Recover the amino acids of this structure.
């Protein structure tokens, strides 16, 4: 890539993504053990905390993403959201009662979740060649997650005793501090003004309504359905993989490092994404991403005694995420009008972070319980279900996803 083709704001956008995912990665891996062992929350209470992101993804469609599209510049929306959301997550350091804990987590989620979509939209608006450059920028999110999650896990996650458990509340100090830092940093990002409703807009200026009406286009409806299936599989993996890897003999302290191989692979795949899109186009790239899930679950189902394969197949996570989800975000930016892009990103994030996550819990948890007899899980049958779903989603995309020619990957990405 020549210097002249590099967007002048790319480094700032990369750092924005680092901090964006650092905030989430700082608290997510350790919060569950802290709530159970440190705070004594019941399973139902922990489940409520876990639904905060799903609730926020639904609410964000109707309110937060609407404001980002129609009323506030993207960088100021990000700054406000991370300021207030950062104060909320920071406050959890001192909170021990469930009602207040849940309320603060919900406030944080309501403000944080929409920024994932808005960060994407802000990046797309300020990149000269989003198809080529977004993978490089979004790679910052993976780097940020690793920088937050890994140190906490290796310093606190593997230690025993109540002092170590209670020390895990420092995740909220770090996450909140990063959020406040990002709030200030967002004010230095390039100005990205809101897009006013187009003249004659039948939806009365509601960006989310106009974005939703685009699902009447067959290629976008097919992509929406496939995204729901893939999101359910993706979220389901994290529900069942931990127990499976423990069952096949991987020690607890090594489960996260083994699963983190996928995050390293994600960095490599993000670096290659622009080139791959240029060579293969939207459809083939996304199909490969979906088939990555099928291959990973198939290895789990048919090769549970091959420790080497179980570890190596974790690298497919990079393909699953970059080739489908990152490509999805790039495609949404190309397919939707500028005045509804944040809402369109939020519409699909509703599946990725909300409905897909809930569907995974409603499907995989009861299925695993049904397949458990005397404490022994029939993992082969369990894993054949998502393998079949992934193959079905890939087939649906192959035969029914036909975006118009004007949305083809630009030719200059190929060089």
């Amino acid at each position: 890539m020549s210097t002249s083709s590099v967007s002048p704001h790319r480094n700032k956008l990369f750092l924005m993504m680092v901090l964006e995912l650092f905030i989430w990665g700082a608290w997510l891996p350790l919060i569950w053990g802290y709530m159970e062992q440190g705070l004594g929350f019941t399973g139902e209470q922990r489940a409520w905390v876990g639904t905060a992101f799903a609730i926020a993804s639904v609410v964000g469609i109707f309110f937060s993403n609407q404001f980002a599209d129609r009323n506030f510049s993207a960088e100021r929306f990000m700054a406000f959201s991370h300021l207030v959301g950062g104060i909320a997550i920071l406050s959890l350091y001192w909170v021990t009662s469930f009602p207040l804990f849940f309320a603060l987590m919900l406030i944080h989620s309501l403000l944080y979740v929409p920024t994932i979509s808005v960060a994407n939209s802000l990046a797309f608006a300020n990149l000269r060649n989003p198809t080529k450059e977004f993978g490089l920028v979004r790679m910052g999110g993976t780097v940020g997650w690793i920088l937050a999650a890994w140190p906490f896990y290796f310093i606190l996650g593997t230690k025993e005793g109540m002092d170590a458990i209670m020390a895990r509340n420092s995740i909220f100090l770090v996450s909140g501090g990063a959020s406040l830092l990002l709030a200030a940093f967002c004010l230095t990002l390039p100005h990205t003004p809101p897009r006013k409703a187009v003249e004659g807009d039948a939806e009365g200026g509601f960006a989310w309504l106009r974005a939703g009406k685009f699902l009447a286009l067959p290629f976008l409806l097919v992509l929406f359905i496939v995204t729901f299936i893939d999101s359910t599989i993706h979220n389901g993996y994290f529900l069942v993989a931990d127990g499976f890897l423990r069952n096949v003999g991987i020690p607890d302290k090594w489960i996260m490092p083994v699963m983190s191989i996928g995050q390293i692979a994600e960095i490599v795949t993000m670096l290659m994404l622009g080139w791959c899109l240029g060579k293969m186009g939207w459809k083939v790239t996304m199909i490969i991403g979906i088939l990555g899930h099928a291959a990973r679950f198939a290895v789990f189902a048919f090769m549970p005694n091959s420790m080497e394969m179980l570890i190596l197949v974790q690298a497919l996570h990079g393909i699953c995420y970059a080739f489908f989800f990152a490509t999805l975000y790039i495609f949404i930016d190309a397919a939707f009008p500028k005045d509804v892009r944040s809402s369109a990103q939020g519409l699909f994030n509703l599946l990725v972070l909300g409905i897909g996550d809930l569907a995974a819990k409603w499907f995989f948890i009861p299925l695993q319980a049904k397949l458990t007899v005397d404490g022994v899980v029939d993992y082969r049958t369990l894993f054949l279900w998502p393998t079949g779903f992934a193959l079905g989603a890939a087939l649906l995309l192959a035969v029914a996803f036909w975006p118009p020619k004007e949305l083809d990957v630009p030719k200059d990405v190929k060089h």
Summary: The longest strand covers residues 372-373.
